[in-house]
Structure of GPI inositol-deacylase:
Amino acid sequence: MFFRLFIILPLVTVVLLLYGAIVNIGYIEENRCRMTYMFEHPQYSRIPVQGNERFPKYGLYAYSEGFITQRVQQRSFTGAPVLFVPGSGGSYRQVRSLASVALRKGIDNSWQAHLDYFSVDLNEELSGVYGGYLHDQTEFIELCVQAIVRLYGARGRSTRMVIVGHSVGGKLAQAIVADGREHIVRHVAGIVTISAPVDRPVALLDHYHQSFYDRIEQAWKVNRSVSTGLKSRGLKPFDGILFVTIGGGIRDIIVHDGLTASRYADLHAMTHNIPNVWLSVDHLCAMWCLQFVLVMNRFLYSMIVPNGRSSYGFVEGKTLMLEKANYFLAQNFLHADDEYVADDADGDGKKQLIVHHPEQEDWIEDIRRSFTERYRAGMDRTRVQMIRIVPDKPAHRFLRVEVLNSEQTNWLSGCAAIDVYSNSRVCHKSQSLANYTLPVPSSKFDRFGALLDLHELKRRNPRWTHVLVKIPRTFKPVQFSVDVFNPAEREINVTMPHWFDYRRHTILQDASQDDSYYRINIHEMAQTHQTIALDLQAISCDGVKGTVVVKVRVPWAEGYDRYAFQEDLNRTTVYIYPPIERPLEGNETLLPINVDVYFTPGCRYHIRYGQSLRVSVARIVQQYFMLIPAHCVALLLLAFKDQLSQTAPDEPAFVVGKLRSSLTKPAPLLVLLTVTSLLGKFLTLFKAIPRIESFSTPVPVSILIHLASLGVLLIATLALWGAIAFCANFAHKIIRLISLPIPVMSSTFLSCIHKFPVAIAVLLVAIALTACGGVSLLCAAAVYFVLLSKAYEDYLENFVFHTARRIAARFFGARPRDGGESSDGVRRRRRRRPANETGDELMVINFHLPLFFLVILLALLNVPSVITWAKNYHYSNTLLPDPSLVPALTVLGCLAVLWQLNTPRNVYGYEILAALLVIVAFVSVLYCQVHVYRLNYSVAIVFLAITIHQIIAPKRREGVEDAGDSEEKEQIEDDNKAE
């Protein structure tokens, strides 16, 4: 029973992760982005770049439409320059959405303040999976910066540009600054990265990525302060550059939100938290989502200043640029539980006073604690709603106020109502509380809200008696709601279960119609895969359509505040998860995740929550999928070790176990889990030892990845045996079809694979040297399959022959004779030695099967190099640099020996080889999960060790006949007796 469960569990895990991948593709959140349309046909004018002859694949273009194209062709640029850098596989044409909206804005401004958009053509190279391009791309972008500066003529010396980088393009923008060249740094005013893996790559598939990130990290660490802001500007060379990072959110399945922030960023924002965007965007959608494109251009336009006669540039100094970034891209307000700043002064030390005219306004003080006022036809007089501050009653502590369609910025203020006008207490002047207000997501209205601690407000301003909500006269429909409450009555605490809990829990049965705010505190949620599904259902609404806004605040993840809102829906589900892991140290680790729920007044709501299996699995797939290759290699090596450990040291003949049986044993999996966990905790005590990668992976995730890797290997093993058993002849036919259309050449090539495998290995080495190592590995996997199928044919032939002879001997008592020639043929077949020294063709297959899987894994790891070589073939026949070359040459050299020898040989030393396999398996899990490219060298070391062992190991028990000879002698004696 346990054995069957251990077989089924990995297969179920594989199905579960496949389901998570499907959920990631399009079943988490709908795409609510609006398309960006051009008014005229886009034009891309190529700009000459000095030094372009070194990079003929690349180019620089300027965007234009309509009559503006003539100015661009005449090289007349007078706006503030913006350089767009595309990402991995991205096109320079992706700039058109940003540039087209900016161009329309410039035309509306009579071409006064405007932006000049430039875009870099990087030949749509896949720099995200192949790091060999990154150095050349960085150098070319530096040349583009210099070319743009020269376009502005005499004022080019003072020209400063903003670089907008999408995906890997954001890292390239950071790289050109990292080189530290003064003529580049002084022309870069700011860097904006969009959905870019800034401090860590998505996957390290080659060492070029590793060295690229390390070089940038070292340069920025020396020349840039961490989280500079305004306090440390000017202290280091790079501190004067505005650095903004933007992430796409849960819909971005390529670069998840935890990778988009940087420790060097002045500001980090997520699209679902940017005002007037309020939604998550996928990786490519960020470049055409109209809501985001509009906000980005407003931000860039806000930094434009006149720069000489009829020309414009970006503002000097970082202070104003950062203020604009905070205004357009961030939510700068005070939370109810944040520390209050001095209310009597703004940034300039002057009071922000609001002057009132009571004779033109309606001053109303309502004794109700919670109410909503709607004016569907507008208001003919300004209304000032007075909310009394009652300092000693807990029921009057917190105030939640919200306005819709208010056209006044300073709509919230506080004052001491000591004046009297027309039998009403009034204030002629009040102090603005605009720094406590924030926009609330809405696609239909201008919606603003504030959450105030009235007791704290009274303590800091003892003379104040009221908070004022001022709604100016308007012809638009307007609404405001007031909700005064005791925070203890609106706070709900939830503890995240350590393991999965399928039950749904009701935390709010029936909220009052006047309740507009609830806070849910989620404790013990620390890992990024942990997810809670919050279900909010409108039970009944009093003539209004239900709108729910949920704000998720993670205390240890600055800039990751997330908004989710649904309009005109009776029921909605919001998924709560931490975007980054909770730090192990610091006071913030004790704070829970805050979920603020804002209801529409007039509706009654029902709230339930439960763990979300589908989103949890989807996030595991998104963030930990690249750990599977390391675990597959480790489990395969442990299974191979078990295969080689079937024979006792004193036995005369070496025996290889079955791969399927070794994989289905629970011991290797349990050993890998426990030992790597213990080593991860033990080795971290030694600073001289490199950091263990598996230590940061949660235990439940490690178990799932282990089981999924085992399931993949089991499925692959069964599929391979089926392919070998049923597709052997088909593989031979395919080889004949692929070969030259000359029958002799095809037959010769096929016979060479069977009889001269070393020659084929030499041919594969030549392919690796002249084309790409990954191509040669794929060809080696195909040749290996042909050899295994041939070995299986020999095994079936001998098995059928020996079985028929034994049946004939038992039933007829003699060997059938068809004449002397037939008898001699049978005798020759009987005395033929098998393919290896052990005398078992099936054991040959068992020995080579894990090696074949290692070759397949190695080939799959280097598929990015193959794709890169194919895309770049018309520029160069050979991939340079080639990260797969050294591992490919090593493995192919070893295969040349293993294919030529009668392996496995009946020799000593398999115990030492098995111990080495265990060590490499543990190293693969400890050090190759994130740095995936290290698996190339792990597999190469395994092949090298096996080859050396097969060559130099001494034979077992010289002078003792092996099992194959004894079996053959017994069969000959049986035949003689029958005769």
